What does this fold into?
Amino acid sequence: MNWLILVTAGLFEIVWAIGIKYTEGFTRLWPSVGTLAAMLVSIVLLGIAMKSLPVGTAYAVWVGVGAVGTAIFGIILFGESANLMRLLSLGLIVAGIIGLKLATPA
It folds into this structure.
């Protein structure tokens, strides 16, 4: 269950990372409110997951899920580069997340 909570925290990290773009420097009220709410949910869920998962593993997975998801949404929403090297690098992050899951007791 803590892995599901951790991945959910990572998904909320994607929401707030993308949300920052829409806040226009936190000058737009509702995008700013949504972004700050997603930040809070993400951090709280990360803290809950860390009750039983190692801090290094939990943090690395949280950041990894957020980084990969944010990069993918950057490609989709903002037309950011999707060149081979970038996609292979994102694949390496995913491989690292899987490796941490396999190396960490449930």
About this structure: The chain has a mean pLDDT of 96. Helices lie at 2-23, 29-49, 55-78, 84-103. Residues 55-78 form the longest helix (24 residues).
